[in-house]
From TrEMBL:
It holds the Pfam family UxuA. It comes from Paenibacillus algorifonticola. Its cofactor is Fe(2+); Mn(2+). One of its GO terms (biological process) is D-glucuronate catabolic process. Pathway: Carbohydrate metabolism; pentose and glucuronate interconversion. InterPro entries: Man_deHydtase, Xyl_isomerase-like_sf. This is Mannonate dehydratase. Keywords: Iron, Lyase, Manganese. Catalyzes the dehydration of D-mannonate. The keyword Cell division does not apply. It comes from the Bacteria. GO terms for molecular function: ferrous iron binding; manganese ion binding; mannonate dehydratase activity.
Amino acid sequence: MKMVFRWFGEGNDTVSLDQIKQIPGTEGIVWALHDVPAGDEWPMDKIMKVKDAADKAGLHIKVVESVNVHEDIKLGLPSRDLYIDNYKKTIAKLAQVGVKVICYNFMPIFDWLRTDLHKEMEDGSTALFYEKAMIDNVDPFDLVKRINENSKLTMPGWEPERLQYLTQLFEAYQGVTQEHLWANAKYFLDEIIPFAAEHDIRMAIHPDDPPWPIFGLPRIITSQENIRRYLQLHDSPYNGLTLCSGSLGANPENDIVSMIHEFADRILFTHIRNVRVYENGDFIESSHRTQDGTVDIAGVVQAYHEEQYEGYCRPDHGRHIWGEECRPGYGLYDRALGIMYLWGLWDAYQKAAAAEGAAAK
Ligand code: DNO
């Protein structure tokens, strides 16, 4: 397992590369050009800036999250070919600087969604929270306004230039069903995967968060069955998965351990985090520790260990603790604690396996 850490870029993150470098066992950053709109080709000079900064800090840049997919591709509009072309140009450039995995998602309009970015927990820390009844009944435009007012920084998927077009986007998605989305995903994969393979870059689809349709928009990367279908849409080792335990774990019916075993050879990147799911469907992003949430994180790490997982891993959203002011979910402290918990589990399973091996001799 190779540990990496998400970094939003110079001037766009409260965490520094030097701090990331000091988290034990962390070898690279997970990055993107967050100021380039979805659909545009990434400029080489901006890519090089990130590479130079990471090189200087002694961290690699092999994992990108995300090259966002333009809505016209998800909608299957004729203009998609232009955006697919730009996507390929970006892939070719990323290959030149040594990128190996591109994480992306196929969620209409919204990326991850929460109703409260600073919900207070029993211990005084705050965390990302999702109130199900609120989304089930909310007007999406009100919600966007709230998010805008709540956060000083932009969030992935909620970039100001996208929010402006929200009305048009909602209209464009009228009548777009899950089956349309599947067909549009296949068109995208059939174009992108062979090209990415030529450049030795693996594509890693991120599950939908939360893993169910919201605001009447279709969502498809929601369950084991659907992930299986997605990986088979274009059957290639370059069509892989970012297995996110927190996104999928928001639906307790999702069995993450079983997914790890089934998709082991297609998991390129894993996001490991816990969520505490309540009976009414609300959930909060608790600490990474198994006992604090609903997802069996120890079991998840054990499954990766059993599969001798060699892909990339990052801790995911942390709580906001010790007074840290940071991008919601992306502070230093709780994610660093998360890494140490993951390594603790991993090393313990490693030791146990070695001892078993020795005893069997
Ligand atoms: C949330 C992230 C997602 C993820 C995208 C991938 O923090 O896990 O925003 O980056 O869905 O495209």
